[in-house]
Design a protein that fits this description.
The protein has 13 helices and 4 strands. The protein is α/β, with parallel strands linked by helices. The chain has a 4-stranded parallel β-sheet, sandwiched between helices.
Length: about 280
């Protein structure tokens, strides 16, 4: 346990009794993280007591810390790929303190002897370095869905809350697809850069489209990554097959006017290519 992790455990004793390698799930909102949550829970990870989760399975105890600290961090760091020691000390320390308290509150529902555990909150993706300071052995499941589909989503929680802090200027107009895909690209590229460099093999990226197309294969990847053994895989496999229902919105960007689709593709070209998404046909 690092000195910072030890200090967090001292402030929040509930953390000290849990394993030092939690699995956290993050994404831009509406990417399908509830499916990953269901798979890992069925595979045997403690993913939160029901009373500490909302309907999609998000760990609500850390919401106050995310609300308070994501924007100051983004304003100081300019993106998601940052080091905590490069932030202003008051910003970094307040984020560590409040995240430790929130995660400790979430962990109070864990049964005695819990060693394999984790949580889902899509916006946790914005504070990965702070979580890593608390849990250097953390694992991160990064769920990605085609940004052009996400640009058309009515889930505007993240653009509404964080676009201005990430890019400067006033908040975008509600529902502006170019603003949504701009945030999608910057957030996912930053999280991928940080995860690959800092976590290495403890970083796993899953595309929602692949999960829908091959749920059994992607479930195997998830369970192996989380360190779950064969005895637990059958329950998780069944959970995946039950939970993975490709939504009607999958691929909805293809129904756009070709010029509009091409415009969204241009805004997020680097991220779409990085994550293996096909280019839009020329209008």
């Amino acid at each position: 346990m690092t000195s910072r992790a030890a200090e967090a455990a001292r402030r929040a004793p509930a953390l000290a009794r849990l394993g030092a390698e939690p699995v956290t799930i993050g994404a831009t909102g509406g990417s399908g993280t509830r499916v990953v949550h269901a798979v890992l829970r069925a595979g045997g990870l403690f993913m939160g007591a029901p009373e500490r989760l909302n309907g999609p399975g998000d760990a609500m105890d850390i919401e106050p810390a995310l609300n308070a600290h994501i924007d100051p961090i983004l304003a100081a760091a300019g993106g998601l790929d940052y080091r905590m020691d490069a932030l202003p000390a008051p910003v970094a320390e307040a984020a560590r303190r409040d995240l430790a308290r929130g995660i400790a509150a979430f962990a109070r529902g864990a049964p005695a002897g819990t060693r394999r555990w984790g949580w889902k909150n899509p916006r946790g993706m914005f504070v990965l370095p702070a979580i890593h300071d608390l849990f250097p052995g953390m694992r991160f499941v990064h769920l990605v869905r085609d940004g052009r589909d996400m640009a058309l989503s009515d889930n505007w929680n993240q653009p509404r809350k964080h676009h201005a802090a990430l890019f400067g200027g006033p908040p975008p107009a509600e529902g502006d697809p170019e603003a949504a895909i701009r945030l999608w690209a910057a957030a996912n590229l930053g999280a991928a850069d940080w995860g690959e460099r800092t976590l290495g093999a403890r970083y796993l990226r899953v595309r929602f489209e692949d999960l829908c197309a091959a749920p059994e294969a992607e479930t195997e990847r998830l369970l192996a990554f989380a360190g779950l053994d064969g005895r637990e895989r059958e329950a998780a496999r069944r959970a995946a097959l039950a939970a993975v229902v490709p939504p009607e919105s999958l691929g909805r960007w293809r129904r756009l006017d070709p010029a509009a689709a091409a415009g969204l593709s241009r805004v997020a070209a680097a991220a779409l290519e990085r994550f293996g998404y096909e280019a839009a046909p020329a209008p």
